[in-house]
Amino acid sequence: MSVLSRLDREGPAAPGALADAEAVRPQAMASTLAALEQRGMVDRAPDAADGRRVVMTPTEAGRAVIHDRRSASVQRLALALEEGFTAAERRELLAVVPLLERLAEQL
Question: What Gene3D superfamilies does the record point to (predicted)?
Fold first, then answer.
């Protein structure tokens, strides 16, 4: 699902670029993309900049799966924060968000 999530976040991408971004061999990415394509989660289209290449894009069904999973994850996180942390602890966690965002930008 990380490939599908990446396509949803970052937009269309060539299989080779996806393999590089996910740190997998191109053959492994080809298998992953074929499985996603068979399930109707991604479409393959010619690259507008270079018609010899293809780019992968998430389908509406693929986007729906990703958004449903994100929604469920957000709900679980909110519940865990509400039930497992005091208001003061939640404020402390909120205070570190900018630092975590900076860290994520450097990765």
Answer: 1.10.287.100, Winged helix-like DNA-binding domain superfamily/Winged helix DNA-binding domain
Following CA atoms 45, 16, 26, 4 in sequence, which dihedral angle do they give, to the nearest 10 degrees? -60
- In terms of C-beta density within 10 A (0-12 exposed, 13-18 middle, 19 or more buried), how is residue 56 classed? buried
What would the two tokens of residue 60 be? 């509406």
Q: What is the pTM of this model?
A: 0.70
Does the 1-107 domain belong in CATH 1.10.10.10?
yes
Every domain of the chain and the residues it spans = 1-107
Of 19, 21, 57, the C-alpha closest to 41 is 57
pLDDT digits (tens, 9 = 90+) for 27-85: 999 999 999 999 999 999 998 888 889 999 999 999 999 999 989 998 999 999 999 99
DSSP string across 34-89: HHHHHTTSEEEEE-SS-TTSEEEEE-HHHHHHHHHHHHHHHHHHHHHHHHHS-HHH
